[in-house]
Specification:
By secondary structure, the protein is α+β, with helices and mostly antiparallel strands. It has two helices and eight strands. The strands form two sheets. A six-stranded mixed sheet has the order 1-2-3-8-6-7, covered by helices on one side. Helix 1 runs parallel beside helix 2. It is globular, with a radius of gyration of 14 Å.
């Protein structure tokens, strides 16, 4: 298997034993992003919409470093500590994705790293 590690300073650096993304063939697996500001590695300030927006900005930066964009994503997993915030995810996703939208799953979780309320990972396929 030929895998390429994707890394960019435009997204938060890994805070554990993982890569920002891994490309195998035409498929790129983007690791989960929480709402860390890349320059400071601190959580973004603001409400859940600000957190969701930062997460998608981080994912977009990794997708770009891999040679694609969020519109190349075929599957997105959204992890929320409170599923009541799901409508906010829908609203913010519309700012970052164009139709046809990727497949998606929303999962309620008890907690996320650093007290984040949202984390998103994705699978991207490039031509």
């Amino acid at each position: 298997m030929n895998k390429t590690i994707i890394s960019t300073t435009d997204a938060p650096q890994a805070i554990g034993t993982y890569s920002q993304a891994v490309r195998v063939g035409d498929t790129v697996y983007l690791s989960g992003q929480i709402p860390l500001v890349p320059a400071t590695m601190q959580m973004v300030e603001g409400d859940i919409a600000a957190q969701v927006r930062q997460v998608f900005e981080n994912l977009a930066a990794v997708a770009k470093a891999a040679g694609g964009s969020l519109n190349d994503c075929v599957k997105v997993h959204v992890f929320l500590t409170d599923l009541v915030n799901f409508p906010v995810v829908n609203q913010v996703m519309a700012e970052f994705f164009a139709e046809p939208y990727p497949a998606r799953a929303a999962i309620g979780v008890a907690a996320l790293p650093r007290g984040a309320e949202v984390e998103v990972d994705a699978i991207m396929v490039l031509d």
